[in-house]
């Protein structure tokens, strides 16, 4: 069996408001990339480790900490892996800042530059209310307000996104792989499926 050789250097970010399944998608995609023998790591959501207030009680200082920590984590991770999958992009973090304190032109040049470092942005839609996980705000109104700000910033920054369809959750990862130019079925899974079929 000829092994497919995949040369990759990418940074994919799942973007969207909280409680829409970005974290789950990050690990699903990372697992697919590992099966393709791609060296990959996930940049986890840094807001969960912020020592300052977040959610509806956030402050400018808190959002600055989150924004710069996200950038630092992405820089560090990208040095060691062929691909990184990000749970949020810096523009997401900026949306929470905008919601709390209004737009800050002094940050936008940095954000516009940093958004150009992502290979692909995947917009995850709101499909259900947020569930409490010890950190996440469960207000539906807050969830939708952040989603609205994110969409406004996508339009204003003229960002290209892969928009996932709310009704097609089972195929979201396939859509991401297809748009990234990667096989939708990994070699290991194909082999596993062939073995199963032979034994039936």
Topology:
Blueprint lengths: L9 E6 L6 H14 L4 E4 L16 H19 L4 E5 L2 H12 L3 H11 L4 E4 L16 H18 L4 E2 L8 H8 L7 H13 L1
Parallel strand pairs: 1-3, 1-4, 2-3, 4-5
Summarize the structure in words.
The chain is α/β, with parallel strands linked by helices and 200 residues long. The protein contains seven helices and five strands. It has helices at residues 22-35, 60-78, 90-101, 105-115, 140-157, 172-179, 187-199, and strands at residues 10-15, 40-43, 83-87, 120-123, 162-163. It has a five-stranded parallel beta sheet, with helices on both faces. The model is unreliable at 191-200 (pLDDT under 50).
| Number of distinct beta strands | 5
Global Rg: 18 Å
- % residues in beta strands: 5-15%
Uncertain ranges: 191-200
End-to-end CA span: 22 Å
If you average the pLDDT, what whole number results? Answer: 89
Largest sheet: 5 strands, parallel
Structural class: alpha/beta
Shape: globular
What order do the strands of the largest sheet run in, or round the barrel if closed?
2-3-1-4-5
SSE run: EHEHEHHEHEHH
**Could you estimate the helical fraction of the residues in percent?**
40-55%
**Alpha plus pi helix count:** 7
């Amino acid at each position: 069996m000829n092994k497919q050789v995949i040369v990759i250097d990418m940074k994919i970010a799942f973007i969207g408001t909280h409680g829409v399944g970005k974290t789950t998608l990050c690990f699903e995609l990372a697992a697919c990339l590992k099966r393709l023998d791609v060296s990959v790591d996930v940049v986890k959501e840094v807001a969960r480790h912020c020592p300052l207030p977040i959610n509806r009680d956030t402050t400018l200082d808190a959002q600055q900490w989150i924004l710069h920590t996200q950038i630092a984590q992405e820089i560090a991770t990208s040095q060691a892996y062929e691909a990184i999958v990000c749970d949020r992009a810096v523009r997401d973090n900026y949306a929470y800042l905008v919601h709390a304190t209004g737009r800050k032109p002094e940050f936008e040049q940095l954000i516009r530059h940093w958004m150009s470092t992502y290979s692909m942005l995947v917009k995850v839609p709101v499909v259900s209310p947020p569930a409490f996980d010890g950190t996440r705000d469960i207000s539906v109104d807050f969830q939708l307000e952040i989603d609205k700000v994110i969409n406004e910033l996508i339009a204003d920054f003229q960002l290209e996104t892969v928009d996932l369809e709310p009704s097609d959750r089972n195929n979201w990862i396939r859509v991401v792989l297809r748009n990234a130019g990667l096989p939708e079925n990994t070699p290991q899974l194909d082999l596993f499926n062939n073995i199963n079929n032979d034994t039936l």
